[in-house]
Request: fold
Amino acid sequence: MTDYILGHINYWIIIILMMVGLYTMMSKPNLIKKMAGLSVFQTGVILLYISFGKVTGGTAPIVAEGFDTYSNPLPQVLMLTAIVVGVATTALGFALIVRIQEAYGSIEEDELEKMDDET
Amino acid sequence: MISLVIDIVLLLFLLIMAIFILRVHQLLAVAMLFGLYSLLVAGLFMVLDAPDVAFTEAAVGTGIATVLMLATIACTKVSQEKIQRKVAKTPLFICLVVGGLLMYGTHNIADLGDPEAPPHTQVAKRYIEDGQKDTGVPNLVTAVLASYRGFDTLGEVTVVFTAGIGVLLLLVRPQKIRIKGVKSAR
Reply:
């Protein structure tokens, strides 16, 4: 039982982290805060994948003399891609926020919806 | 064992950061906390034996994302979010259900660092055994990224390029768009 908890507590904390990000994204009307929540959620997913690739007693996957156990390189490669793509989408989101502020004069979601209803 | 302790301590710090990002109302403070959060994530990647991911996160996540967030705050001139008192119940319910399902889903996953777990014995084995012989690169992450899965990386570059064009098209416009009937626009 203790082994089970010690082996899985890492995953559980990461899932709680992801849910805090998701809650930030869904409950806060401020668009910048929403983007911050999205990034927290995204790093949570990346952390989960990286921890799947960890091998006890292994080293970083760089071949060298004297080491024969390496961590799994595959999740690391995929998450490297995910980080860069994530920042690209974040940049696009921030650009959209800047335009929304110029057009509406507000970046609070409920105010934006009210203005849309009035027109 | 010691690496598990460091791992959990860092994760708890991350959790505290995430909760403060949720609760703080000053957007500048959110940006700073977010930079700190990314730096801690980079440290955690080092503990999990992923140095390549760690320095990408330190450069891209901590550097560029924080600067982008600060630039957005500067451009929009909004420094504080509107404070709302009531707890949003539907999102809380959704988060609890999704979190519960995900936690239920972890019970079949192998323990952290188990060398006999299926991901380590199938695909990755071949990369580790033949990677250097096939590509001549000692860093297996680079070998897989640029050689075995080069087309993935090409797709990634396409996405980044598209996002870059999108940002340029959004920000560089001669005339400003105003939504009809919205009077409060500056």
